[in-house]
Amino acid sequence: MNASDRDVVLDVRHGNRDAFGVLVRAYQSRLFGLVMMMVRDRAGAEEVTQDAFVRAFTHLDHYDERRPFYPWLASIAVRLAQNWLVSRGRTVRREGTALESAPEPGTNASALTGLVAAEGRRELWNAVSSLSSGERTAVTLFYRDEMAVGDVARALGVTAGTIKTLLFRARRHLRERFGAASSFIKDASR
Amino acid sequence: MTCAHVLGLIDAGPFADYSREHLDAAWAHAHECPTCGPALALTTSLTAELGALPAPSEPADLAGIVMARIARLPEPGSTTASQHAVAASRRRDWAQAVTALGGLVAGLALILTMPTGAEVLGDFVTPRFGAAGALATVPWSGPAVIAIGAGLLLYTVGLFAPLRSKV
After folding, report:
1. CA distance B21 to chain A (A)
2. Is the pLDDT of residue B77 over 70?
3. Which H, E and C letters describe chain B, residue by residue?
4. Between B162 and A40, residue with greater pLDDT
5. What is the pTM of this model?
6. CB contact, 8 Å: A59 with chain B?
7. Of A13, A102, A146, B119, which cross-links B115 as Cys (Cβ 3.0–4.6 Å)?
């Protein structure tokens, strides 16, 4: 956790609840992206992201300020997103059991690419969002959010070994997907 | 060094659990192999791109909505129905503990100061007034009376304390 986040948390704990807005503004984009990748539904992602921030605020006394703030916030969001998915019967509760799952039926990953602003990277978002639930969540947390394997494992409630397996499979699936298209290297080098 | 093995190492990336020499040999193979070379280049490029994985833009007023919800939450010190319920439950737990302790103290004090069989047999009051008469004839000591009294008081307080939470 950087010094300013810690100061904000201490400020909120001393009763200045408006100070929490600093954390919301700092992490809303990252968190919404993570939740969107998990639930693949914009309305659902909005609901879960809001709930995650409110839950973080009401449980701020459980947060250890010696640790980074975002992984703790992300673990709350992941649990809420998992509950959201379970409540709609789209996936099993625990990410670890979704290792073998194919992309869930009823979702349209390509439809979400229209929401990604960067035109040249929609293909990558589309590819990642078509991975299994556990794979795409692990990829987002590990690569995009730069969380340590241990933190990702805690957020998903699985072991570090499971996260490594998820990342291994995700890399393979992405390599096979873009290897078949063989256009990614050219696109990425642009 | 087979291509399947090297591709596995490429997919494992930073988690490939092999010696430095083994990995160097694998990368050397990849740089010369027409199958593994492009796979390594692709995965390296993909990994770099994943670090900047784009995301849909968040709703315009997400922060405002969140802060409005937080503003509607009750103040930490305020009393809510759930806090009342928790407090009442705690009072009931304490009352039960006090009742048990009081009963235990009073019971022990009675047992330890009860007259022996010989004392009862030699007593002329007991046959006429039963157990109450037996208790009346016991030569009560000060500490015993205090212990029994305190025990009965605790028992009574514990017995009626939960009623307060229902008011």
Report:
1. 21
2. no
3. CCHHHHHHHHHHHHHCCCCHHHHHHHHHHHHHCCCHHHHHHHHHHHHHHHCCCCCECCCCCHHHHHHHHHHHCCCCCCCCHHHHHHHHHHHHHHHHHHHHHHHHHHHHHHHHHCCCHHHHHCCCCHHHHHHHHHHHHCCCCHHHHHHHHHHHHHHHHHHHHHHHHHC
4. A40
5. 0.64
6. no
7. B119
